[in-house]
Amino acid sequence: MESYLEWVRRFCLSLPHVTEKVRWEHNLCFCIGERMFCIGNLEPAEPGRIAFKCTQEKFAELVEVEGLIPAPYAARNHWVSVRDMNALRRAELEELIHHSYRLVLERLPKKTQVALASAKPFGKHPKRKWAATRRK
To answer: Which residue ranges make up each domain of the chain?
Structure first.
């Protein structure tokens, strides 16, 4: 059975021009134009599973849902952290992550947006070794 992080990773990497990198020892960050739009927690003992950016209105709505909280250190920028992966359906989470991607893409400098628009999407991604960085 596929873990939440595996499907989040697969979904994020299916979006054009997305890169991933491990930051802060145990966070798998998905970026567009070097700016994060989704973070997956590699540390299974930690309560937050994934975090993503949203609008101010959506933020106010989502933090009222049991299992979702304002993301630590990023709530002032309207990031939500999913503590319980059963709080929302998978399709809803994918839609929220995709919206986060679009929000971040739209806020990139115009020069970066033009460069991304004219570049070829990455296509197949090489196998990444993020799982090797997980603490057991």
So the answer is: 14-117
pLDDT of 131 = 43
Q: What span, in angstroms and rounded, lies between the C-alpha atoms of 13 and 16?
A: 8
15 pLDDT band, cuts 50/70/90, is very high
Contacts of residue 63, Cβ cutoff 8 Å, sequence gap at least 6: 69, 70, 80
Q: How far apart are CA 109 and CA 47, in angstroms?
A: 34
CA distance 44 to 19: 22
Contact 31, 19 (CB under 8 A): yes
Is the domain defined by 14-117 classed in CATH 3.40.50.720?
no
